[in-house]
Specification:
Strand content: 5-15%
Oligomer: single chain
Radius of gyration: 19 Å
Helix content: 40-55%
Structural class: alpha+beta
Order of helices and strands: EEHEEEEHHHHHEEHHHHHHHHH
Shape: globular
Strand order of the largest sheet: 1-2-6-5-4-3
């Protein structure tokens, strides 16, 4: 990677395997807005970031070098060699190879643990626009004002000690629905120290999954999303309806397949890179409606 400082901007001149839209739009985060082609603003890590592609360069607008090194470098996982990961996964089979070639610029974000946990609790049986709305409402009500962008007020996601003040009725006003009671349980466990993202970093994926699933309303899919997107557990394999469809379609002759069998195959085939494979496959399945009414892109 090579970057230059241009006034108040950081400009990536050389970078590996990074497309802004492919990374943001693949279902792993919810606090972004699209402004134009490869042009987004993001709220993360108590920062507001305008990021866009300009002539092949990636511009981090109004961003200090300190913030780029200390926040965004890790957030976008720039320290990892994605070319190597894609080469390893592409050698597994043509399905993963096709999925990678369709969106080679996906990177797995390293998000704040608490925000990721609450966001994916909200994601259960929910559509992305509604998830984004609920997270934005919670941030506006309990978070810190960060400034304006395009005439809209922007707020950080609240700290656990701020969100613990919310009751179920107030959270439901934020459009969380039945998930409000799950959020309350999660927040109380984080505040008490029972659920600790820092400690989880040094625990096994299986042990962390078990601890996360002790939270009311947190099942395997939410636990795996939190582990993959905020705890660097790259062997986690979140399995939602799209991942289940693509795995059943390509690896189980289209038969309805138990999630345990899917996880066993993913572990055997992809190993420690299962989470990366999941992101490519999830995006591929959703883009081409694989396993639903439409046939796979490879058969078109």
């Amino acid at each position: 990677m090579r970057y230059e400082i241009d006034g108040n901007n950081i400009v990536l001149k050389e970078y590996d395997s990074f497309c802004i839209s492919e990374t943001l739009e693949c279902g792993q985060c919810f606090r972004f807005e699209k402004l134009g082609h490869e042009d987004y603003y993001i709220i993360a890590m108590e920062r507001l970031l305008h990021i866009f592609n300009k002539g092949g360069d990636i511009v981090f607008e109004n961003t200090s070098e300190t913030d780029f090194k200390n926040i965004w470098y890790n957030y976008f996982d720039f320290g990892r060699d994605y070319s190597e990961i894609k080469n390893i996964l592409s050698s597994c089979d043509d399905t993963v190879k096709n999925a990678i070639n369709h969106a080679p610029g996906i990177r797995i974000l390293n998000q704040d643990f608490f925000e990721c946990l609450i966001s994916f609790i909200i994601s259960q049986n929910n559509r992305i626009p509604m998830i984004k709305k609920a997270v934005a409402n919670i941030s506006q009500k309990y978070g810190k004002y960060l400034g304006e962008f395009n005439g809209n007020g922007c707020y950080s996601f609240p700290l656990p000690t701020d969100l613990v003040k919310a009751n179920e009725a107030e959270l439901m006003e934020c459009k969380t629905g039945f998930r409000a009671k799950y959020i309350i349980d999660a927040v109380s466990r984080v505040v008490s120290g029972e659920i600790d993202g820092h400690k989880f970093l040094n625990m096994s994926t299986g042990d962390v999954r078990e601890r996360l699933m002790s939270i009311k309303g947190v099942g395997p899919k939410v636990a795996d999303c939190v582990m993959l997107f905020s705890l660097s557990k790259s062997d986690a394999f979140p399995t939602d309806v799209w991942v289940k469809r693509v795995m059943s379609y390509f690896y189980f002759d289209g038969q309805d397949t138990p999630i345990k069998a899917i996880h066993n195959l993913a572990d055997e085939k992809f190993g420690k890179y299962s989470g990366f494979a999941q992101q490519y496959l999830f995006n591929y399945a959703r883009e081409f409606k694989i396993g639903s009414d439409k046939k796979a892109a490879s058969e078109k």
